[in-house]
């Protein structure tokens, strides 16, 4: 049963981890898709304004000369690099404002915190491959600068024009420039945006996993309860079957005695054993057990020993009863304690058993000693365990299920009492029991 439970626990843990892994993988892929959708949306919007910002044929953007003329002037060293860069920045002012307006609108509308940067990375005069710039020229950048661009797009285009060169013959020369641009951007709050959109999905996944876990816990609890109920049933059955042996054996001996001749003491003994059998049968039907406890009377202790002496005539029983009052302890349970201790002594070789009962300071004191085989000290901690039996060379020397002392310990524990054992091999054993009670 325990092995099966461990296997089921391991199987569930494996399946739960597998389900958790699938959910995490699914969430990760969904996160990637949502992130791509956001960047795609931003990229499409930025591309429109970036193209306008880079378009050299957009006449509305030019306040003075065209970009082509500016490049030619810079190439011919008619203007300085500072003036050249100034033209780049100023000639795209309107487009930059519209691009900034678009970024602000996305922040207000969708909550996207966009960082963008557009720059010319290279301007080359094609006829002679002269590089006009050595460092990228930034023509637009947001206040919140781009640190880790998520998307980088590049563009290349040519600009050319023809100029007349006068000399002996007038000729036309074509001026061609190759320009490379780069657009970088990132959404600073991309994680919070994606998780915000996935909130409902995450909650549903957590509820699903939590429901599976709670269902498993509920199932395990029910199994534990059922297992406890089965164990209780087994304990009751073991107890009853164990308790049946003595009354049945006593009745058999009593019947044989009656066949040989009438004995006045035999009839009360049979009556007591029949009552005991009835009480044991009632334990199998708990709904029929009366609520009142049958208190043990002073004379009952004598009957316990008398019945044992009748059942085991070969054993010398010595009994000293110093109890003179009724005790608020269950008669059947006390009989079980006395009987099991004495039968345990007989089982392990005792030929004489001494039983003493007494009361002191509202404590019941029971002492059972014998002259049996005795036990080694290492056995004393195990003898009250269920089904435990003392072994010698791995061979059980006595018959039984190992339940007698287990039931003794259980009864004493339920009454908040204690039991002490002293024993030596070959010198017998002594059990001292103390059970508190209230008048």
What does this 3D model show about the protein?
- This protein has helices at residues 2-54, 67-75, 81-90, 93-110, 190-197, 199-260, 266-283, 298-311, 331-347, 404-414; strands spanning 114-125, 130-131, 137-141, 151-165, 171-187, 295-296, 316-321, 327-330, 352-359, 363-370, 391-392, 395-396, 418-423, 429-436.
- The protein has 439 residues and is of the alpha+beta class.
- Helix 1 (2-54) packs across helix 5 (190-197), helix 1 runs antiparallel to helix 6 (199-260) and helix 6 crosses helix 8 (298-311).
Uncertain regions spanning at least 5 consecutive residues: 56-65, 165-172, 393-397
The chain-level structural class is: alpha+beta
* Quaternary organization: single chain
Summarize model confidence as the mean pLDDT. 77
Q: So what's the overall shape?
A: rod-shaped
Quick overview of this protein structure:
By secondary structure, this protein is of the alpha+beta class. It is built from ten helices and 14 strands.
Highlighted features:
439 residues; alpha+beta; five-stranded antiparallel beta sheet; five-stranded mixed beta sheet; 14 strands
What's the layout of helices and strands?
Layout: H1 2-54, H2 67-75, H3 81-90, H4 93-110, E1 114-125, E2 130-131, E3 137-141, E4 151-165, E5 171-187, H5 190-197, H6 199-260, H7 266-283, E6 295-296, H8 298-311, E7 316-321, E8 327-330, H9 331-347, E9 352-359, E10 363-370, E11 391-392, E12 395-396, H10 404-414, E13 418-423, E14 429-436
Parallel strand pairs: 7-9
Antiparallel strand pairs: 1-2, 1-3, 1-5, 4-5, 6-8, 9-10, 10-14, 11-12, 13-14
Helix pairs in contact: 1-4, 1-5, 1-6, 2-3, 6-7, 6-8, 8-9, 9-10
